[in-house]
Automatic annotation (TrEMBL):
<keyword id="KW-0560">Oxidoreductase</keyword>
<dbReference type="InterPro" id="IPR000566">
    <property type="entry name" value="Lipocln_cytosolic_FA-bd_dom"/>
</dbReference>
<protein>
    <submittedName>
        <fullName>Putative outer membrane lipoprotein Blc</fullName>
        <ecNumber>1.14.15.21</ecNumber>
    </submittedName>
</protein>
<dbReference type="InterPro" id="IPR022271">
    <property type="entry name" value="Lipocalin_ApoD"/>
</dbReference>
<dbReference type="InterPro" id="IPR022272">
    <property type="entry name" value="Lipocalin_CS"/>
</dbReference>
<dbReference type="GO" id="GO:0052662">
    <property type="term" value="F:zeaxanthin epoxidase activity"/>
</dbReference>
<comment type="similarity">
    <text>Belongs to the calycin superfamily. Lipocalin family.</text>
</comment>
<feature type="domain" description="Lipocalin/cytosolic fatty-acid binding">
    <location>
        <begin position="12"/>
        <end position="159"/>
    </location>
</feature>
<dbReference type="InterPro" id="IPR002446">
    <property type="entry name" value="Lipocalin_bac"/>
</dbReference>
<keyword id="KW-0449">Lipoprotein</keyword>
<dbReference type="Pfam" id="PF08212">
    <property type="entry name" value="Lipocalin_2"/>
</dbReference>
<dbReference type="GO" id="GO:0006629">
    <property type="term" value="P:lipid metabolic process"/>
</dbReference>
<dbReference type="InterPro" id="IPR047202">
    <property type="entry name" value="Lipocalin_Blc-like_dom"/>
</dbReference>
<dbReference type="InterPro" id="IPR012674">
    <property type="entry name" value="Calycin"/>
</dbReference>
<dbReference type="GO" id="GO:0005737">
    <property type="term" value="C:cytoplasm"/>
</dbReference>
<dbReference type="GO" id="GO:0000302">
    <property type="term" value="P:response to reactive oxygen species"/>
</dbReference>
């Protein structure tokens, strides 16, 4: 049985979407440390309409991060379908890694979101705060299930209170991706 076409958010206001989002849960990703905590993404609108992406996570008291650029797949469409491009390894940016970033759900106040991609191998639950109400979390999980995701793969992301310092710990820019090749 073929999976239905995913429904995505329409008429997203990118300016309102900008800022910091905390990862509440996600599917494990090949480029993210397995024991990552306090994972967050900060989005900044560029003058050309693209979005600067800074994704950070902490593991073993070290800050790992990766930067990239997101842009609308079809600038004329009102669908919230974006592509995200990261260059890896970061210290020798020669290999672009491009992925889909589709907003599957976004509340009207832009405080929590469900993000996925068409192959259903990547899923994120994001929130402007480090913790999300359990009822809302469960509603987002149900929405993901309706869109054809195997939600048994969803893993909650530990978030500390208080959060680590803005750039706390030792930076390991670029190492994150290399370690991921060996699943460390």
């Amino acid at each position: 049985m073929a999976k239905k076409e995913m429904e995505v958010v329409r008429s997203i206001d990118l300016k309102r979407y900008m800022g910091r989002w905390y990862e509440i849960a996600s599917f494990s990703s090949f480029f993210q440390p397995r024991n990552g905590e306090n994972t967050r993404a900060t989005y900044t609108l560029n003058e050309d309409g693209s979005v600067h992406v800074l994704k950070e996570t902490w593991s073993n008291d070290k800050r790992d991060y990766i930067e990239g650029t997101a842009y609308k797949v079809d600038p004329k469409s009102d669908e919230a379908k974006l592509k995200v491009k990261f260059y890896v390894p970061l210290f020798l940016p020669i290999i672009p890694v491009v992925g889909d970033y589709w907003a599957l759900y976004l509340d009207e106040d832009y405080t929590y979101a469900l993000i996925g991609e068409p192959r259903r191998k990547y899923l994120l639950i994001l929130c402007r705060k480090t913790h999300l109400d359990e009822d809302i979390y469960n509603q987002l999980v149900e929405k993901a299930k309706e869109e054809g995701y195997d939600v048994s793969k969803l893993k909650r992301t530990p978030q500390a209170d208080p959060l680590p310092a803005e750039n706390g710990g030792t930076d390991t820019r670029g190492v994150w991706w290399i370690k991921s090749l060996f699943r460390k």
